[in-house]
Automatic annotation (TrEMBL):
Species for this entry: Cereibacter azotoformans
Keywords: Membrane, Transmembrane, Transmembrane helix
Protein's UniProt name: DUF3619 family protein
Transmembrane parts of this sequence: 46-66
Length: 114
C-alpha cells in the first residue's frame, strides 16, 4: 500500500473520530460556520432571583405581623418612620401590605387548625 494513502487514511480516521466527539474544523481563510453564527451574549436572568427575594420578604413580613400582632407591629414601623436615614427606608419596606396581611392571616388559620 502506498505510504501517502495510508497517511491520508489515518488523518481522515483521526478527523472523523474528532467529529464523533463533537469537535469541528474550519480551514484557514474560509468563511466557516463561526463566521455566520455568532455566539449570543447571555443576559443575566434577574426575574427568578428577584421573585424569590420578594416572596421571602413577603413571607418574613407576614410571619412578623402574625407573631407580634397588627397593633404592636404598626407601632414599631411608626417608630422607624420617625427615625432618620435608613430607619425611614426600613419603615417603608416593612409597612404592612395586603400580601403580608394575607400571609399573617393564613398562618393564623393554619396554626389554629392544628
Amino acid at each position: 500500500m502506498d505510504q501517502n494513502l495510508a497517511d491520508f487514511r489515518r488523518r481522515i480516521a483521526r478527523i472523523e473520530a474528532a467529529h464523533a466527539r463533537g469537535f469541528g474544523f474550519e480551514a484557514q481563510g474560509t468563511l466557516g460556520r463561526s463566521h455566520y453564527v455568532k455566539p449570543r451574549r447571555r443576559r443575566p436572568r434577574l426575574i427568578g432571583p428577584l421573585l424569590v427575594v420578594i416572596l421571602c420578604g413577603l413571607g418574613l413580613k407576614g410571619a412578623l405581623l402574625w407573631q407580634i400582632g397588627a397593633g404592636p407591629y404598626e407601632a414599631r414601623v411608626a417608630r422607624l418612620a420617625a427615625g432618620e436615614g435608613f430607619d425611614r427606608i426600613g419603615s417603608a419596606l416593612l409597612r404592612p401590605d395586603p400580601g403580608s396581611r394575607f400571609v399573617a392571616k393564613s398562618l393564623e388559620e393554619f396554626l389554629a387548625s392544628r
